[in-house]
Specification:
Elements: H1 3-13, H2 19-30, H3 32-48, H4 51-79, H5 81-104, H6 109-121, H7 126-137, H8 140-172, H9 174-193, H10 220-249, H11 255-274, H12 283-297, H13 307-318, H14 321-335, H15 341-370, H16 377-393
């Protein structure tokens, strides 16, 4: 596949007015995703020397984000991103700074957990907000490419973020990495809140008593994707902790960020290719297949015994990340009504962050109990679980509800010359 063929569909997406700006701002606002999680691990581990405590604190932040992000999304579906985002960002800044001060001043450890949880609770799912903007602007044929683009941007975030936060935390000071992530998130979130022209349309709640309303955002497909994503997220959370510990044990702490960047780099490459392929089968079949591939590729982590092996194995395992995330997002987008799309996409991120919570905590305990090298069993087993969940849940996807007609879907402003169609189920 030539570079021109590969990139043409992505370039064509930006014919949508305002899309280049909101996609770039979305990247900026998402850059702190790995910086805040990994930064909290580096900050707490640097102060206490315990990876178990560091993993638990980082997991608390992720857990709170997983619970509250869909609530922010539900309010934004009804009130608008521009109205709600400034309030979320204000809380994110105040509690993030408060958490940092509590750690470096030696405040009681319960305050670390409380403030990290409040920080996470104020973090909306920026990726879901950007994908909802694409869904409102594109027809079904082009959404998979747009979602692939956003997954690639997610991976760029994880290529840039870990080395940046690692360098800041190890060569400047432990709080520097975490605080930089907080500040970038606030700047990006506030900037996105001002891009009002590309916001998805507002939707009123369903009529009827609250107790009798059908949860439109939580259908069978969404629940299955979320369940599989818990295991996928556990891989991500465990990798953050285990790779940092392994690099330090090998006497090369700054290389932890490089290794995590290799992991994300493999996903970036795969995401670019996946977004333009014409794949056979249904969206459900693609999701299950990608989840199984993700499970198999991660077993190579059991072979890691040196930094020389860590980098290539991380890259090869990373090649399966973007396909499983893109296929899951596309499946969810095809099965929920537009009035609940942002919330549904946020629930998938909730699955990921719940997994990050468990993965961070389990990996921290494994490092302390077994050593860093043996702790690579945690992400390997979590990836295997993702494949098993997808296979066992596949029967739930066989009878799909009719795809709802989008309530507001505008065509691209002009034809996209040379656009290769992407098969839809």
């Amino acid at each position: 596949m030539s570079p021109r063929t590969l990139f043409r569909p992505y370039v064509s997406l930006f014919a949508v007015p305002g899309s280049l700006r909101f996609s770039f701002v979305g990247w900026l606002a998402r850059l702190p995703m790995p910086m805040v999680g990994l930064g909290s691990v580096l900050l707490v581990a640097g102060e206490t020397g315990s990876y178990a405590i560091a993993g638990a604190v980082s997991g608390t932040l992720a857990l709170a984000a997983s619970v509250f992000a869909p609530q922010w999304a539900r309010v934004m579906d009804r009130r608008g991103q521009g109205v709600v985002l400034p309030w979320a960002m204000a809380g994110f800044l105040v509690f993030g700074v408060g958490f940092t001060v509590a750690v470096i001043t030696g405040a009681p450890q319960w305050t670390w957990f409380a403030l990290s949880g409040l920080t996470g609770a104020c973090g909306p799912s920026i990726g879901a907000l950007i994908r909802a903007r694409w869904a409102a602007a594109l027809d079904a044929e082009h959404r998979q490419t747009a979602f692939a683009l956003e997954s690639v941007i997610d991976e760029v975030v994880f290529v840039v973020g870990p080395p940046l936060v690692t360098v800041l935390a190890t060569l400047v000071s432990p709080p520097a990495g975490f605080l930089t992530g907080i500040l970038i998130a606030v700047v990006g979130g506030l900037w996105l809140s001002r891009l009002r022209s590309t916001e998805p349309p507002l939707h009123e709640p369903e009529p009827g008593p609250r107790t009798t309303r059908r949860p439109a955002a939580l259908g069978k497909a969404v629940l299955l994707v979320c369940a599989a994503y818990v295991a996928v997220g556990a891989v991500f959370g465990a990798m953050d902790v285990v790779v940092v510990a392994f690099a330090r044990a090998e006497g090369a702490a700054p290389l932890a960020g490089v290794a995590l960047a290799c992991y994300a780099g493999g996903s970036l490459v795969a995401g670019l290719v996946y977004g333009v392929l014409r794949l056979p089968g249904t969206l459900a079949g693609r999701f299950v297949g990608c989840a199984v591939a993700f499970a198999l590729a991660a077993q190579g982590m059991l072979l890691i015994g040196s930094l020389g092996l860590l980098l290539p194995i991380a890259f090869l395992a990373g090649l399966t990340i973007a396909p499983v995330l893109i296929s899951g997002t596309s499946l969810v987008e095809s099965r929920v009504p537009r009035r609940a799309l942002t919330e549904a996409l946020s629930w998938t991120n909730t699955g990921l962050t719940l997994g990050v919570t468990a993965g961070s905590a389990l990996a921290g305990m494994a490092v302390d109990a077994w050593g860093a090298q043996s702790a690579f069993a945690v992400p390997a087993m979590a990836a295997g679980l993702a494949g098993v969940v997808a296979l066992l849940g596949a029967p739930l996807l066989r009878t799909r509800r009719p795809q709802p007609v989008p309530e507001t879907v505008e065509p691209l402003p002009e034809p996209l010359p040379g656009r290769r169609s992407v098969g839809q189920s």
